[in-house]
Write a structure and sequence with these properties.
Blueprint: E1 3-8, H1 12-22, E2 27-33, H2 38-46, E3 47-48, E4 52-53, E5 57-60, E6 63-66, E7 69-74, E8 91-94, H3 102-110, E9 115-118, H4 121-152
Parallel strand pairs: 1-2, 1-8, 2-7, 8-9
Antiparallel strand pairs: 3-4, 5-6, 6-7
Length: 153
């Protein structure tokens, strides 16, 4: 049985995740929360400058049809007013970038959803930079230690 997922925020990350979910059998997209007109949502999901076009995208009568999935489109800025649980959602992918703490996502849990996965591009970039910096630091340290060994020989 597929995990039922909702996406809050259809910006760059939310759209990429929606495309990935549409190609998988073990995950089902059942709801999305996005601002903008249905035409804009469809256009942005259908035509991606990085990943290319995805022709099996259609928005009609308040639903997003993408791949095998049919997802209800909601447009609500307050997470406390989003009733994703009524769509059978198991996991919410929080992709707005606005709700990045346990406290700000607690409304989803209070409304009956089991799990929330927060997406924070800035933290991901900072983590990546930190890891790169650590790798460089380790390489410099190894070179320094090798140089010391050579000096001692």
């Amino acid at each position: 049985m597929a995990v039922k997922v909702a996406i809050n925020g259809l910006g760059r990350i939310g759209r990429c995740v929606a495309r990935i979910i549409a190609s998988r059998e073990d995950v089902e997209l059942v709801a999305v929360n996005a601002s903008g007109s249905e035409e804009m949502i469809q256009y942005n999901l259908k035509y991606d400058t990085v990943h290319g076009p995805k022709h099996d995208v259609k928005v009609k009568d308040g639903y997003l049809y993408i791949g095998k999935d049919k997802a209800k489109i909601l447009s609500e800025r307050d997470p406390a007013k989003l009733d994703f649980a009524s769509y059978g959602v198991d996991v919410i992918l929080e992709c707005t970038g606005a709700f990045l703490t346990q406290e700000s996502c607690q409304a989803y849990i209070d409304n009956g959803v089991k799990k929330v996965v927060m997406s924070d591009l800035l933290k991901m970039i900072l983590l990546l930079l930190y890891l790169v910096q650590m790798k460089i630091h380790m390489q410099v340290k190894q070179l320094y230690q090798m140089h010391l060994v050579q000096l001692m020989d």
